[in-house]
Amino acid sequence: MLDSHTLRNTIFYFRLFLIFIILMTLVVWIEYWVRGEIGMATELLEMARSQWGREVLFAGGMLYILLLSLPFVPGVELGLLLMCIFGKEGIVFIYLFTVAGLTFAFLMGRWLPKNWIASRLE
């Protein structure tokens, strides 16, 4: 006959084993799901790169320049999206678009008269 201490240890290790099995099943399921999602995302990116190409990159870049030059508008997210979609080529162009957008914002602040801006904001 088992004493209470041995029985408690047996129950504890059995529960630990069940938790381990459940966690391993969950990890395998999540890994399978993530591989499927990555495969779908890869197919979508390849389709976007082949069908849209540089036209979408430049159109998105122009929109990115405008959004980045406006204060309090989160344009950086669009730049990150374009970098993720277009890869290394996108990173180079988004860097150039970032420099252009920040230069445009500086020039707007430098050349627009303060009185004209204040009258528009009132």
UniProtKB/TrEMBL annotation:
Transmembrane segments: 12-34, 55-73, 93-112
Entry keywords, A to Z: Membrane, Transmembrane, Transmembrane helix
Record bears the keyword Membrane: yes
Name of the protein in its database record: TVP38/TMEM64 family membrane protein
Source organism phylogeny: unclassified sequences, metagenomes, ecological metagenomes
